[in-house]
Amino acid sequence: MQRHCTFACEGDQLVGTVAVAAGRTGLLIVTGGNELRSGAWGSQALLAVRIAAAGHPVFRFDRRGTGDSAGENGGFRSARADILAALAAFRREAPQVTRIVAFGNCDAAAALMLSAGADADALVLANPWTIEEAVETANEPAADSLRAHYRERLRDPTALLRLLRGGVALKPLLQSLLSAVRRSPPATLAAELRSGLAEFSGPVTILLAGRDRTAQTFLARWDKADPRLRHCPGATHSFVEPAAQDWLVERLLEALGSG
After folding, report:
1. Would residue 50 count as lying in a domain?
2. For the segment 42-72, what is each residue's pLDDT rounded down to a tens digit?
3. Is residue 241 part of a domain?
4. pLDDT in tens, 193-204
5. Is residue 123 located within the same domain as residue 161?
6. Alpha-carbon torsion 222, 223, 229, 233, what sign?
7. CA 21 – CA 27 distance, rounded (Å)
8. Is 137 helix (H, G, I), strand (E, B) or coil?
């Protein structure tokens, strides 16, 4: 069963949805960007159903200025108040819950890191956003992610064979290679995320989708030996592939059951 609720955040009314379950450990799903609490293609609503079926209540919500919630969308850097309000609402709606795992993808993961985990007990962070918006855009990928892309391509015999046979347009390839070898801009956001996460004392899991440039950029700016990293090689950014969806659910259930 799922039910909707409203709660306040700095004078604005926010809307959330609770997937009801009897468990004492719950999952808070934090959305990113302008995403609704249902998630891309309803992915977060479906995820909530699966986690609740395993016995854990789930709370997902629209941040200020998105979906059904009032207020102004200030982006991931101003999301701490929204997350704290949602955690408080979750505890009111599911009073049996004594432990909350917060999950966010992309800039929602960045918001949790910048917030030092807010008031959650554990974190699951997927493909954290580290791209400096002033100098990098989605249309012009970071040099870090391009280098990761070409390293992967060079390991693929099929891609090499296509190149040798003339099956690759050379001009776009050369332009992309030039972008890949240029110096990356200072990764100040990554440093902020590292600092924020260092203030969080609970368990942390970092999930990386192997086919996602956001994840590749993050990994290029992070300690690759970090034992908290988990890789899903065939996954794209939102883990939409059936096998990736199952993998994501398994990682979340591990986090929910680890306390």
Report:
1. yes
2. 999 999 999 999 999 999 999 999 999 999 9
3. yes
4. 999 999 999 999
5. no
6. positive
7. 11
8. strand
138 in any annotated domain: no
Q: Mean pLDDT for the chain?
A: 87
For 146-156, the pLDDT digits (tens) are 555 555 555 56
- Assigned domain for 73 exists: yes
Q: What is the pLDDT of residues 101-142, one digit of tens each?
A: 999 999 999 999 999 999 999 999 999 999 986 544 444 455
Question: What is the CA 175 to chain-centroid distance, rounded?
Answer: 30
Residues 47 and 119 occupy one common structural domain: yes
In sign, the C-alpha dihedral spanning 134, 139, 140, 143 is positive
Domain span holding position 217: 2-133+185-256
Q: What are phi and psi of 183, to 5 degrees?
A: -70, 135
DSSP 203: -
Token pair of 74, please? 């200030």
Q: What are phi and psi of 245, to 5 degrees?
A: -60, -45
